Amino acid sequence: NRHIVRLAAPAVGENLLHTTLLIVDTLMVGYYGSLPVAASAAAGTILWRAHMTFGCIERGTTALVARACGAGDLRAAARAFAQSALLATVLGLVLTGAGVVLAPYLLLGLQCSPEVVAEGTPYLRVIFLASVPRLVYFVGAATLRAAGDTRSPMGITFGMNISNMVFNYVLIFGKCGFPELKLLGSGISTALSILLACGAVLWLLRAGRFGVRPRLRDFAPDFAIVRKIVRLAAPSLLEEITISVGFLTFFSFVARLGTQPLAAHALATRLESLSFMAGFG
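^ thats the sequence. predicted structure below, dont judge the formating
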């Protein structure tokens, strides 16, 4: 039990920090009223489901890396991460292209009002631009956890929170000579924080702190490993698609009620998530 708690406690902390980041974003953009809150909720829901659905490759990464580490084959663990990172890059590029082009249509598909679509489209596009670093971060953090390091991802997430608050303050409210970008500033802040988190996890892996140290040649495409990752992640992909269809359908019902109910729903669900994110950890 002590071993479980030692591994789980940082993961619980990491998930609670992710939730805190969302709550802080909501509080800051809420200064400008219900419209930016509603727009960030609609765009954030699309982003969350897109990144969680395609980010499920981290489950295949976790399985392969944990198995290799348990067998004492750290080279195989490093290759599994490298191939996962390649796959994450390809999927991230697809998400980036699709997200930037389809952003307004995705919001319209959720039955959002025209003002929510207009407010949320630039925000949605700028965070979709960070799809590659976000998916690479997912598989990098999964690799660290699978190797037994649950503390570093929590530390990186804490750093994300700090950098996000600083960038938010500067970009949302127009401080330190920057223009007042409001909701768009929050999107840029989130994208920059994701990029920094990705850089941090790659640096930790390159340092080989837990023995999983990828080399440049590990990134040469190895379709046998990629097939294993896809095979392991496929059931999770189907699960996430099912969840996404149900969740987005429900969200469209809320969006039809108008801007203020949508904003209120966003505030309530982000606070509610504190109750179950610990369980995910």
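The two ends are 15 Å apart (CA to CA).
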